[in-house]
Amino acid sequence: MRRRSGTPGTEHDKTQDKAGRMQHTKGTNMRRFSWIHAVVVGAGLMAGRAGADDFEIAWFTIDGGGGLAAGGEFEVGGTTGQPDAGDLTAGEFSLTGGFWGGAGGGCSGAERIGKAKCRARNGGNQLKVVLKNGVPGDDFTVTLDDGATDSGTINARGKGKAVFNDRPSGGGNAGAVWSCGATDEKSYDCP
In the CATH scheme, what is the code of domain 112-190? Predict the structure, then answer.
């Protein structure tokens, strides 16, 4: 059974449930929520103002180290972490830190010439050499037996293509060299 007592919107805005317990209605709860919300927002604004004082943190860094490991005839060295990305100066000395770019991602280990195919096209022979499994962004050069060359960059799918027009009839070899150091060779035959 629900009974309403007092005027709506006052502290007497309550209902009574079947067990006889008094409960606040929606109007009272909304007023309570608005008051709590105002207190929280006000405290947040005061805290933001209190933290606006000037302060300074001394510059320091935690960098990784490096090391060398050797076993038998093999040796490997390397570093970890990020070097200081800024300039350090003292007197006549200066040190500039940053990332070490290196030589790229290296070879995938699966670079190869997928095909070297020659076709009669536009009154002459056209040779297409398709490279596969390269590292995207790696440069390559394809060289034919007669010294003709074509260069390009491996695309996002790990492929590259060299095209040679007006090729003479007969066979030959196409050699590919990737800038990461990989090499491959494939023979072709033009009609």
Answer: 2.60.40.10
